[in-house]
Structure formats: C-alpha cells, structure tokens
Batch of 3 targets.
Target 1
Amino acid sequence: MSRVVVRFQPGLKPTLLKHETHDQSSHGSWARGGNRLGTEDIMALHFKGDSQQQKVYASEGEIFKEKRPNLPAPEFNKTRADFTIEGAYEKAYKEYSKKWDAWARNEAKDIQSDLGKKHLDGTPSGVQKYVNAVLETDYWKETFGYSPIGTPKVKATNSVNHQGKWEVGRKFSVAKGWEYMNNLSIKRTFTMNEPTILHELAHFGTAITQTSPFESHGKEFTRNYIDITTNIAGADAGNRLRVAYQKGGVEVAD
C-alpha cells in the first residue's frame, strides 16, 4: 500500500491571515478554484517531513483544554461477583459503556457553525453530511475548487492514537487490484467536534491545491486551516486559532 497520512490530535482550532499585495507564486497554490490535482500528483508533492507537527498540536491543544467541560467521568466499580443473575454483569457493563461514550462525546463536543448544528449529531453519517455540506459551500468551491479525487469518505474509528486522520493514496487487494483512497477517519467520540473535522478538511484542501512540495502541518496547511475555520466556523474561532499559533511559534503562510 502506498499512501499519505495526516493526523489530528486534541486541541486544534483555526484562523485567517489576509494576503498582502506581494507576489504569491512562492506559496504554491492559493489561487481561487484550486488546481485539480490527482492522487499521484498529491503523493509526489507531499514532503515526508513534518517539522511543525508538535507545535501545531500543542497550540491547538491549548484551545481544546480551554473549552473542555471537564466533568467527572462515569465509573464502573462492579465485578462479576456482584451479580447473581447470568448476563447481569454484561448488561450493566454495556449500560456503563453507553454512559461513558456519552460523557466522552460531551467532553469533545465543540459545534460552532450552522452547518455543524445541522449535521453533527454524533454519528459517522452526520460527519459525512457535514463534510459534503462544507465542500458544497460557495467559499469552498471558490477557494479549493473541484477535486478529481472526489469527496473524502468518512469512517468512524475507536483509535487511541488520533482524533482524526485524512489519508490519500492507493491500496492493493487481490479482489480489486489497485484502488485509490480518499478517507477521513474520525474517532467515534469526536464525531461532534467541528474543529477536528475542519482540521482534516484543511489537510484535504491543502493537498488538492498545493503545486509545490509541502509538509502535512506546514505553513500552507496552517494558513488554510485558519481560513477554513474563519469562513465556516466564524471569525471568533479563527481568531482563537491565529492567536494560539502565534503564541506557539507556528509559521503561517501569507
């Protein structure tokens, strides 16, 4: 399998820096409408290094900490010995798991836009509807344009390593041979966290428009994430992200 993977960790949020009047050619592609790059083009331009990754995670993590409710997590202090009826322990643990999932979703919940309120209901299908809606906005079409690789396919995971992950590339199976993929994975407990989803869409938007080599969390990504957040989630959210990046020493392209 050959692919490019970019991940999101807790604490990310966006903001926008306006362009000056100087020559923009060195910035890759900030041209309105995008560049219609295909999978092979994206893979060829993606630079394997990611020098800003930890700064980006740390900066966005500060925002995440500020907004978490920090309510006590539900506990399960029972053992099988506490139950005399067969299957009672499993039933009790299942109920506890539902409560824990609800608590975790509430801890991660951060819905900022009207699109988020309309679609992000805590389900993978809600995330897919949200992604589709963002890509259908006039803002997205004018800024990133149409992509030959299509719309990212949303998948829900129980990963302990990341809250979100966008991946593009090709995979091989005996049944189907080589296939291209364009997947956006979201941890189930983060399916109501709009900044996580926008972070991954910023990876997607950067990849389909960048015409010079770029890092996953490089200055082009941070610029695009700020811009996307500002235009989709609002100026306040964008401003918080910009300030966090500035405090964290994160470079943002003009």
Target 2
Amino acid sequence: MDPLKLGLVRRDRPESERGAALVISLMAVLLLAALGSALVITTAAETRIAGSFRDAQEALYAADAAIELALQELMAASDWNGILAGTKKSAFANGPPDQSISLPDGSILDLAQATNTANCGKTASCTDAEMDATTPERPWGRNNPRWVLYAYGWTKDMVLTGTINSDSYVSVWVGDDPSENDNDPTKDGNTPTNPGSGVLALRAQAYGPASSRKVIELTIARTIRIRSWREVR
C-alpha cells in the first residue's frame, strides 16, 4: 500500500516545519553535548580533589612519622643542650644541614633557607634581633625558639627494610621551649622556677607529592613525653 495515500509520509511538508525540526534537533544535540562536558569536568575535578587530599594526607603522615623518629632519639638523649647548640644530630640526618634537595615536583628545597624562614620569616640569614622579635607567629620575644635542624631525609629511608612507599622529604627542627623565662633559647633552662625546664619544642615539615606541604609543631617533656601537638596551617 502506498504510504503517501495513508498520510504517513509528507513530502509536501512546509520549509518552516523542516527548519524548526532541524533547530530542535540541533538544540537537543547541544544540550546532550553540554551535559556530557559537564560530567567530564565534574569527574576530572573530583579526581583532582581526591588526589590533592591523598597527597596532603601522605605529607601529614610523613611529618608525624618524622616526629616519632626524632622523639625516640630525643627521649633517650641525656643532654639536650648539645642538640639545641646543633652539635648533636639525629641518626636520620642525610648529608650536611645546608644542602639543597631536588623534590619530585621539580622544586628545590634549600635546608638552610627553610631554617631561616622558620626562625625569622625570610630565606636570608637571621640576626639575633630578628629571631628575638615579637611577631604573631613568634610572640615570645627573647624566648622564641631558635630552630636547629636535627633530622632530615627521605621518608622511604626512615627504615632499613625499604618498605615505606613515599616520595616525601621530611625535616625536623628542635628549639628551646618558649614557655621558659631565662631569655636564653640556646640551652634548656634547669631551675625550679623555670616552667620550660626539661621541655623541648619540635617542628616537622614534610614536602610531599604534587607540592603538598604539612607542618607540625609540638612540645615534649621528659616526664610527659608529648605536652602539646598542632598542625600549622
């Protein structure tokens, strides 16, 4: 049977109707393309967010692991003044304390500059006055800790078994506890009236994958091991 007689096919459809149908079809295609693009962008963004969170957590765990490693050695040390003077280093000290490290993300870590930044907020060498200055980050004046690099190296080298799968680099600084009142941050106070006697401040920084960075500061005492712990943001 002829479909033209049944009205199923209209070869005489007006030009305006065919144009409208074409526009509707194009709009539908564009809508689907936009939805598909939005889905791709959302998926990619979620992947990046998850990756950034994973890298940040890895850096935080690396900094915490470095603290634990240093803590074991510090609690076993009989004299902390040599550590504060920089004459005694951790067994986990990979090379000289003023070396430059090439990190996996392509950046360069200068350990001496990192120490200066922690002590006075700049990469150049710090003067006594700059380290004793009262700032929002270092409000203790002459009792500000003068950070001395104590332990540093690649996280994967912390254990000899090579079972740590991490590209993070970690460094730990030691300083006199800022609660002391002797105005001498180069040695541990040892008087009954000094509230910071027998207490050290520690600062650990991890340089993780994809430029992730984490800093932890804490204070330790021989009698109460860890007195305070905080992540610096």
Target 3
Amino acid sequence: MKDEDDCIITGNYYEKLPKLLNSKLYDIMMHLPKTVVHHIHLTAACDIKFLVDKLCYYDFVYFNQKDLMFKVSKKGCDLPGYIKVN
C-alpha cells in the first residue's frame, strides 16, 4: 500500500479536496472574506522557509528562476525555463 501524502498544499487538488474541506484551515477561511477561499498570497501564508522546504521535497515541483515562479505537476513540466527542484 502506498504511503499517503498528508500534505494539503501539494498534490492533486481532487485527491486532497476531502482532507481540505475537513481541515481547520478551511473552516477558518470560510469565516474570512470570499476571496480568501479562492486563493492566498504568499505574503499572507505561512513562513516562506517552510513552503520552500516542503515544496522542494517532492519530485513533481518545478521552478523558473527568471520568473521566480513554482509549478506543481505530477504530469511533468515542459514549460521553458522550469526545472525540477529536488
């Protein structure tokens, strides 16, 4: 049996949705203005070191140094400038 990835912030959205909907984080966000439920800016998220440490652990996370952007995709990433981070 495959070990379950207990992280909500990475992975397939539809696989993580039940866990997200039942999380305390989602419950808190439901009490905030509507736009928070749709997305969150990194400046309002947890510590960037935690995010980078967590994101760089997975082999399906890519980074574009020119644009300073991450992309998460288990299908791979062939976009120009993106490289695997792990």
